[in-house]
Amino acid sequence: MKHKSLIFTIGSVMLALLACGGTDHPDLVSQQPKRSTNNNQNTPSIGMPIDITRLEFPKLHGKGSSVYVYRAPDPTNAAHQIMNYALEWDHTKRAQRWSCWMSTAPTRVKNWSRAQWKADKKWHGDPFQWAPEIPNGEQPPVKNEFSQSLFPDGSKGYDRGHICASEDRIYSKEANEQTFYMANMQPQVHSFNAGIWKQMEDCLRSHLQSSDTLYICKGGTIDQANQILSYTRSKFIVPKYFFMAVLLKNASGYHAFGFFIEHRNLTMKQMKEQGISTRLADYVVNIAELQRLTGIDFFCNLPDNLENEVENKPLQAVKSEFRDWGINQ
C-alpha cells in the first residue's frame, strides 16, 4: 500500500509539508479556543508540519527525536487526507516517546475490523511491520523480539502493545494498518495489555457523545532510568509505567485528566488477590501531576490561561467532571 506520512527532526530539515495557514482537518480550527498568550506552544519553523500546533500534541522533546505524522483518507471525503496519528521517535533510545491523535465522530465510525486482516491476501493476520521512514535497525524486529524476551520475574513474552490502539483507528483499512507500525509499539506483558490497560482504553471509547472531540496522547516512560522496567533481548526499552493524557472538548468547554499506571505482570484477578486496586479512579491524576511524573508538557498548544485551568484542577474536581466515565468512585 502507499504510505503517506510527514516527518521532521528537531534541529535539521527533513521531508515536510507546510499547510499554508491551515490544518489537515476542516473541523480542527473551529474546535480550538480563540488564541491568546501562549508561551510554550509548538512553533513550526521551515521544514516542520503545521500539525505540531494541534491540540493533541505535547511539547516536542527535541534532542535527537523526530516526529512522524501518518495520514489516511478523510472518512467524510476520501479525496482529502487527514492526520491519522503522530508519534515522537527517539533515535538514540530506539523508542517511541508517545503517540497522539484526535477522536471525532467521523473517525469513530467502524468501517474496518482487526479480524478482517485474517482474510487479507497480503497479511493473513495482523499486519505488523516496520514504519517505512524510520531506519529498520532502530525499530524492534517485527517477530519474536518481544515474545521471546523475559519479564523481570522470569516469565517469557511481551505483547506488541499498540500505543495508538488498533481499535481507535477503524474508520478505514489504511488507517488501521498504520497502527501496526512497530514504531507505534511498546513491549507490554499480556496480563497488563489485555487487562487494566485495555480497561483504560475502553474507558476512553465508551462515554463519548457524537459531538465530543477527544485529544489523546499515550505512551510509556523511557526518559528516566528509574522509570525503565527492563530491556528486551536486543536492548529495547521496556517502560515501567504507561500513561494517557486526555483532553475532552464538549458543549461545556475543555476538560482533562490523565492515567498513570505501573507495568505489572498481573491479571485483574491477581491484582485483586494481592490487594492492588483495579478501580480506574485510583490511577487518575490531573495533567499537572502527569507532567511531573513523565516530564512531558501535555496540551501545550492551548492558550496559557486555558492550559493552566484544565491542567491544575484539583483531582477531585477532575474526577467529578468525568463522573459519567466511571472514574470518580
Can you write the helix and strand succession as a string?
Answer: EHEEEEHEHHEEEEEHEHHH
What count of helical segments does DSSP give? 8
Count the E strands.
Answer: 12
| Uncertain runs | 9-31
Question: How many separate domains?
Answer: 1
Give the CATH H-level superfamily: Extracellular Endonuclease, subunit A
Radius of gyration: 19 Å
CATH class: Alpha Beta
Short description:
The chain is 16% helix and 26% strand.
Structural features, described:
This protein is of the alpha+beta class and 329 residues long. It has a single domain (55-325), classed as 3-Layer(aba) Sandwich (Extracellular Endonuclease, Chain A), CATH 3.40.570.10. 16% of the residues lie in helices and 26% in strands. It is built from eight helices and twelve strands. The protein has an eight-stranded antiparallel sheet with strand order 1-2-3-4-7-10-11-12, sandwiched between helices. It starts with a strand and ends in an 8-residue tail after the last helix. The model is unreliable at 9-31 (pLDDT under 50).
